[in-house]
Design goal:
This is Poly(A) polymerase. Keywords: Coiled coil, Magnesium, Metal-binding, Nucleotide-binding, Nucleotidyltransferase, Transferase, tRNA processing. GO terms for molecular function: metal ion binding; nucleotide binding; poly(A) RNA polymerase activity; tRNA binding. InterPro entries: Bact_CCA-adding_enz_type3_sf, HD/PDEase_dom, HD_domain, HDIG_dom, NT_sf, PolA_pol_head_dom, PolyA_RNA-bd, tRNA_adenylyltransferase. By secondary structure, the chain is of the alpha+beta class. The chain has 4 domains: 155 residues, Beta Polymerase, domain 2; 87 residues, Orthogonal Bundle (Hydrophobic Seed Protein), CATH 1.10.110.30; 175 residues, Hypothetical protein af1432; 53 residues, no CATH class. Helix content is 54%, strand content 11%. It contains 24 helices and 13 strands. Strands 3-4-5-2-1-8-9 form a 7-stranded mixed β-sheet. Strands 6-7 form a two-stranded antiparallel ribbon. Strands 10-11 form a two-stranded parallel sheet. The chain is elongated and about 90 Å long.
Length: 482
């Protein structure tokens, strides 16, 4: 390993330590005076060496939680019990958020879904039980002595993930670490050592003992990373995805003998890459999980709907509908919120709608329905639909983009004229009851839906015209003839 790279990391680390010195020096002196050992540890040291340390600081200590809480009280602005059973106490000091965890060891039994925690006695022992060498780094306080018993600094400079000990032992202690390897590949751009990949492949089924919530949280962090493709390829290649996201490896459809349809797995990863490149169009100000996960899942209905027809033609009729159902089922199993699940599934269901637009022959009514059906997801649908074009035929790709440009221009024009984002009938419920002379009930709801269709078909009408349309509809209803 080049010493130049090591010195760059060390220089970044020194600068970051100087920046946080007012906090770590005071805290270190406080623990030292009490006879306890304290060290900045793990991700905080790693991120300091990468020059990306934020306002969250992680420490480890020989002190037990009750003593940690006592030492923080009177120094920190606020102290809270963040996870006493896991040995962690949280605090806030100015802009800094602090977590201090007692030296510990954690391991799963063969059938446990949660780690059993026991406290350790040494910093070195604590570091040896960390997930990867780049996280098994510490800075003793208050003397700021660097502790690196497993070569984490070298691995950090090389951009490689290794475990402090045998990877099989590490993944036995906590199987979720296998997913963390994929997450760090996405977040940090690190490669994963061959022996670590081999251990993941051999132990992949052990991920099933981890709770769905913990798996979900790692998956979200992976998808939101700068390079989710790298993490997803590890999940699939090492067999982890078979247990947590089986829909993804299922996309590796074998090509028909005439090679007439795309590799759907690679296509989906490319759509994800392209959606990420267009995230600025959404206006969320950062990575958007809903759009990214919809891009990843948009074709998961294809394996179940694939049909071979005469002449070697392959079809996937209604795969968007099937895919939306599959997406809902998977996200529910991973304990996603109803809001996220509905949003992602809706985008999967709508992702082909644009292809009915053809050469731009949609009526204004069809454009209004497109906007109405997308609702608050419209900007995300724009991104997903554009990202779904992965053809290598430049002429075809340019034509699709021009056509979608035209659709967006029509949406913008209609939106300016008609307030498309809040389309509703031109009569409200009270006006419907007054016009028809009916009390509240199912008839009013049906009338409201009819007037919404009129609004979508014909655009904005004056009140007299709408009342006339309502009365014509009413005359055809059985209640009016009773």
């Amino acid at each position: 390993m080049s010493t130049d790279h090591l010195s760059e990391a060390q220089q970044r680390g020194v600068r970051e330590l100087l920046r946080i010195a007012p906090v770590i020096d005071e805290l270190g002196a406080r623990f030292q005076a009490a006879g306890a050992r304290l060290a900045l540890v793990g991700g905080s040291v790693r991120d300091a060496l990468l020059g990306r340390l934020g306002l969250d600081l992680d420490f480890t200590t020989s002190a037990r939680p009750i003593e940690v809480e006592r030492l923080l009280t009177g120094w920190a602005d606020a102290v809270w019990d963040i996870g006493r059973e896991f040995g962690t106490i949280g605090a806030r000091k100015g802009d800094w958020t602090i977590e201090i965890t007692t030296f510990r060891a954690e391991a799963y039994s063969s059938d446990s879904r949660k780690p059993a925690v026991t406290f350790g006695d040494t910093l070195e022992g604590d570091l040896g039980r960390r997930d990867f060498t780049v996280n098994a780094l510490a800075v003793n306080l208050p003397d700021r002595a660097f502790v690196d018993p497993f070569g984490g600094l070298t691995d950090l400079a090389a951009g490689v993930l290794r475990t402090p000990g045998r990877p099989e032992d590490s993944f036995t202690d906590d199987p979720l670490r296998m997913m963390r390897a994929a997450r760090f590949a996405s977040q940090l751009g690190f490669s994963v050592a061959p022996e670590v990949v081999a251990a993941i492949r051999a132990m992949a089924d052990r991920i099933t003992i981890v709770s769905a919530e913990r798996v979900r949280d790692e998956l979200v962090k992976l998808v939101l990373g700068p390079d989710p493709r790298a993490g997803l390829e590890l999940l699939v290649g090492a067999g982890l995805a078979d247990h947590i996201l089986p829909e993804l490896p299922a996309l590796r459809l074998e090509l028909d003998e005439h090679h007439r349809h795309k590799d759907v797995y690679e296509h989906s990863l490319t759509v994800l890459d392209q959606a990420i490149a267009m995230e600025g169009r959404i206006g969320t100000g950062g990575p958007d999980f809903v759009t990214r996960f919809a891009a990843l899942m948009h074709d998961v209905g294809k394996p179940a709907t694939r049909r071979f027809e005469d002449g070697g033609r392959v079809t996937f009729h209604h795969h968007e509908v099937k895919g939306a159902r599959i997406t809902t089922k998977r996200m529910r199993a991973l304990r996603f919120s109803g809001e996220q699940m509905d949003a992602v599934s809706r985008l999967v269901e709508l992702h082909l709608r644009f292809h009915g637009y053809g050469g731009g022959e949609w009526t204004d009514s069809a454009v209004r329905r497109y906007v109405r059906d997308a609702g608050p997801l419209l900007d995300r649908l724009h991104v997903l639909t554009r990202a779904d074009c992965t053809t290598r035929n430049r002429r075809k790709a340019a034509s699709l983009q021009r056509t979608y440009d035209q659709l967006e221009e029509r949406i913008a024009r209609l939106a300016e004229e008609e307030e498309l984002a809040s389309i509703r009938p031109d009569l409200d419920g009270n006006e419907i009851m007054q016009t028809l002379g009916v009390p509240p009930g199912p008839v009013v709801g049906r009338a409201y839906k009819h007037l919404l269709e009129v609004r979508l078909d014909q655009g904005r009408l004056d009140k007299d015209a709408v009342r006339g349309e309502l009365l014509r509809w009413w005359a055809e209803q059985p209640e009016a003839r009773a």
